[in-house]
Amino acid sequence: MKKMIALMFLLATPSFAEQGYVDDAKIDEIIISSDGSYGGCLLHLTKKTEDALPNCGRSWVSLSCSGDFTSKADARFLLQNAQLAMALDKTVQVRIDDSKKHNGYCFADVIRLY
After folding, report:
1. N or C, which terminus of the chain has less Cβ within 10 Å?
2. What's the CA angle centered on 95, arms 91 and 96, to 5 degrees?
3. Residues 49 and 57: beta-carbon distance below 8 Å
């Protein structure tokens, strides 16, 4: 009976969204789409996002340039910082959120340049 109660508790426990950080990465590719797919813009990081959050199992992150998860103005600032980091070959820290995804790619809401 105890095993059954424990199993029922585990199955009934909700899973919570998490935020995680990808540290010491570089941005080596940027994709911008005009049709809004993938949130309108994607960054490819040189570090695996799954190391920060298992549900973000790719090295791509969306900045939600479409305005779904942040304002378009804030997304533009994130994109500009990403372009600056890529152009200057700077290391970045990126915060990702696995509760907000575009086509399976986790949303990044912070980019810190080093």
Report:
1. N
2. 125
3. yes
Assess contact for 114 and 90: CB atoms under 8 A.
Answer: yes
**82, 27 contact by CB (below 8 A):** yes
pLDDT over 80 at 2, yes or no: no
Kindly list the distances between the CA atom of residue 3 and the CA atoms of 8, 12, 26, 79, in Å, as whole numbers in the listed order. 9, 14, 47, 50
pLDDT in tens, 9-35: 444 444 556 899 999 999 999 999 999
Query: What tokens does 31 get?
Result: 């994709």
How far apart CA 45 and CA 60 sit, in angstroms, is 6
